[in-house]
Specification:
This protein has 91 residues and is an alpha+beta fold. It is built from five helices and three strands; from the N terminus they run H-H-E-H-H-E-E-H. Helix 3 packs across helix 4.
């Protein structure tokens, strides 16, 4: 597989390609759809409602958060996640 020459593209193109890569997994799409309906939730809700393992949900949440698509706030021992409206509107 060839090396991506990201320096050939502008920041907007590279950023959109990153979002496309992050959104290319159906579990992440399901998480985003869930969050759009509920506005906020914690990992446990997603495990129960989506039927995926806790570790799997955590991995996908981390990818979405690292891309800036999600925001998380710590509440006690859990983290509540929501869509980052600034990034979501950009996408």
């Amino acid at each position: 597989m060839g090396v991506t020459k990201s320096d050939l593209f502008n920041n907007n193109q590279n950023e959109l390609a990153t979002y496309a890569k992050v959104l290319a997994h159906p579990a992440r799409i399901a998480i985003i759809q869930y969050l759009l309906k509920s506005d906020t939730c914690c990992n446990t809700n997603l495990v129960v409602d989506l039927g995926l393992a806790q570790a799997t949900i955590s991995q996908h949440l981390r990818e979405l958060k690292n891309a800036g698509i999600l925001q998380g706030t710590v509440e006690g021992v859990s983290i509540n996640y929501c869509i980052n409206p600034e990034k979501w509107n950009y996408i």
